[in-house]
Amino acid sequence: MSVVHPTQDDPVALALSEGIGGQRGEHAGRHRWWTPVRILLLLTAMTFALGMVQKSGCFDDTWEDGTGRYTQMCYSDLPYLYTARGFAELNWPYSSDPQVRARYEVMEYPVGIAYWAYGAAWVTHWLNGSPSLDNRYVAPVSDLWGMPDVHREIRLYVVVNAIGFAILALASTWLLAGVRPRRPWDAAPFALAPAMVAAGLVNWDMVAVVCVAGALFAWSRGRPGWTGVMIGLGTAAKLYPLFLLGAVLILAWRTRRWGDLALASAGAAASWVLVNLPAYLSGPDQWKVFWSFNSGRAADLGSLWLAASDVFHTTFAVSTINSWSWLLFGAWCAAVLVVGMLARRTPTFAELGLLIVTGFLLVNKVYSPQYVLWLLPLAVLARPKWRDQLVWQGAELVYFASVWWYLGTFLNSGAGDKHPFYSLAVLVRVAGELYLVALVVRSWFTLRREPQLTETESNVVAV
What we know:
Layout: H1 11-17, H2 36-54, H3 56-60, H4 68-71, H5 77-84, H6 98-103, H7 111-127, H8 134-137, H9 141-144, H10 148-177, H11 188-191, H12 194-199, H13 206-220, H14 224-235, H15 244-255, H16 258-282, H17 284-287, H18 289-295, H19 304-312, H20 318-342, H21 349-363, H22 372-382, H23 386-407, H24 420-445, H25 456-462
Helix pairs in contact: 2-10, 5-10, 7-10, 10-13, 13-14, 13-22, 14-16, 15-16, 15-20, 15-21, 19-24, 20-21, 21-22, 21-24, 23-24
């Protein structure tokens, strides 16, 4: 099986290769050990290591410098939630114990992330010698951060999570490289993603990212049931993988393979229920917090709603945002369905997934800095061109920098509480995402040959 080299069809890769010998020739040899996938895994490891270095400024002072975490853009939720959600005392996230609930807020994330965070806390305590927790139980929560054992565990907790995320990133690269066996280098923009350097350690979103990569891999292998299982597992960690079933619907409709949709839906439902069951049975009221938290949330960071509030100096009611967000998202999905059905060629799973998830992020009431990771595996397969990836990720990095400066109050204008530069950065981020969407839709209707258009070749190879 011949492998397509990036210098053979990517102008940016070709231009960059001039300093190391130029385009790969017809008679180029193959290394016995350094296969494309192994090189990609090495590049992923280097990228994620660079992301750890990027957080070193905050790590050195255990995230205690309130200004430094914004100026150095090294903020992470992990150290703060270790003490704020009871992990320093190894409390089960869905405990209904009155004493626990009196001390700690419920983990506001879906169960997949809560399980991961809890498991990482167990590993952290074990690595720290399993210290006695008696003195922590009687101390005010606000005093935990200053305890020597806890202070050491906070840093250790970040390290444990970082190593786990790195493993998930490596698994994601392996899965994405396997979607199109003749084109493993399509996963290179993921392996070398600046977005992963910047946002990989902000929160636990890598748990959902690897599930999306798994769904893309399973679909390319003609396994709709397993695609659904991965979608369900991803939805148990973050809501957005659920929307990939919309991509399955469009593809099933175009090909009249309704059995694929049924298998994917059944797999997603079964895996989601199984993963959620332990949390629901142990604390149904605590399990519901994620849903109530999000429904009651006002316009928040990075959203067009917040930018509009800032520009027009108004406040949108939560009920208004909730209603219009879902109405606009529904209209977006309907448009994707129509365009996807009218396309001159069959869209790929990654392309449809990219459009649907982008629509959700455009109208959602919040766009946290790490949400760029949601689009990353979909984007690199939908548009595996370095120019397109650099334009899009460059726009995302503009927003990534601005959000920390906004939180650090460095973007305040002389016009009171307005933040025009931050609102502009939100629009830059939106423009970058719409740029990818426009390129994908255009490719569906043009006759120009696009090398990444089909995932069927991977199905043929796998047989």
